[in-house]
Fold each of these.
Amino acid sequence: MKAVGLYHYLPIEDPESLVDITIEKRAPSGRDLLVKVKAISVNPVDTKVRAPKDKKEEQPKILGYDVAGIVEEIGESCTLFKPGDEVFYAGTITRQGGNSEYHLVDERIVGHKPAALSFAEAAALPLTGITAWEGMFDRIGISENADENQNKTILIISGAGGVGSIATQLAKYTGLTVIATASRPESINWVKKQGADHVVNHREDLVSQVRELGYTYVDYIFCLNSTGEHYEAMCELIAPQGTIGTIVESDHPLDLSPLKSKSAGFVWEYMFTRAMYETEDMIRQHEILNKLSHLADQKKIHTTLTKTLEPIHAANLRKAHSIVEQGNMIGKLVLEHF
């Protein structure tokens, strides 16, 4: 079957950075599904994994951590899906990714695709949707009940990116007042479209901008870019007994001492944790994806797809990686059709 992989970790301008390959189509066993891939999305994690390093793969490494497709076969222990089911998922960093015609994935991290969305629209949601949901509700501890979030405020740093776009929608759905950051006219318009109540510029002083809006503190902060750069401002803005969550590593150690007097929390969100460590609650990602699917079908949230390329082959994936690496992507980029 067709796939796109790599043997060497190279700059994306190098044609050998991602290459078209042919690999064996394997049968599923245990709780694995064999999925016929219809659409994929490219995320910053793809570019980070592919980034130049002194390493060579004897067998091709396949990236791709957003898939929408159709179940072709199921393993003998599967109970959640049957052949013919339309699905979407992000997969795991510890196995081969979904940039192939068929893909093996554990059913516990797969959800039923929203019926109201195309495969391309659905492929834009899994990684960012799980990250946003886990980050806000499982890690930061925000209630999913809108009645409990009245008069509570969240600051979402980098609101126009993939995670920020869906996080803003989920925050509004659960009753929070959303302050999102953006720095360009087009990204400001985008975050407003996602439902942000206020927009501030992350390239300027965050503390003064938020306080000019009338908020001395915010109850929650979800940082999706440049954790180290914004850390001091986050410590100042977080409310007493509030929580800061981030998905981005810092380029220098973070001092937690400023949070002590506020009894404030600091938590990490890494979407691959549950599958990587096969935690007892690994099936939580199946449940989250089904919740996202239900919300999309009810039109309570919408896809964040903004750009589509086709077909799926190495040249287009190199183009997609190049676009994502520029760091100013609004929404999500999807490829479809092998």
Amino acid sequence: MRGRIIATLTDYKYVIALVSVFNFLLTPIHIAVSGFNPGYVIVTNFTLVILGSSLIASTKLTKAFTYVLGLLTLTAIWMEFAHEGSKPLTIFRLVISFALFTNLCILLLGQLRKIKQVNLQFILMPILGFLFLGLIGGILFEAIDIADPNSFRRVAHFYSYSFYYFSFISITTVGYGDITPLTAPAQSLTLVLNIIGQFYLAIVIAVFVGKYINVKS
């Protein structure tokens, strides 16, 4: 039974990771529908992201490293929630979260290089990488806001969720204008994410088409 569960988690690890991230992106809806404390909903959904995303590690070494980072991140998230307003805990959570999702992006790149044919995994991995990029951007935006609370003008605010929302509309170059970067660091990071988001999509499409042509030929 245990072996079957592990095999199922391995086979569907990219799907599980994608679902967990998309679930996090729906956090404002969960808050509105459930009526729960927004902070509790955010940390719960972010916990699911970490648990689901950690499944993509494949070797013993990468699993051990990823699980340690994941455990430290979970500990930081819940300790921060229990001690609201603790700046040292917030900084620790941001640093370890950045390390975790950067590690996950590196793992995805390594796994993507090994795929020789176009299949479901090859399609899901770049999508997941794009979502991880958005999460990393949110972490960096939150770090900038901690360094200078006047870095952004916000119309609506769902705790730290606002930074992830702004990160995703930045990498997709949507720019609704409800959140505006005001300081030089915030504006610089916004521009960098805009450029990275466009190049990421162009490179992924090029790689996908090239791999498809190679398979067909």
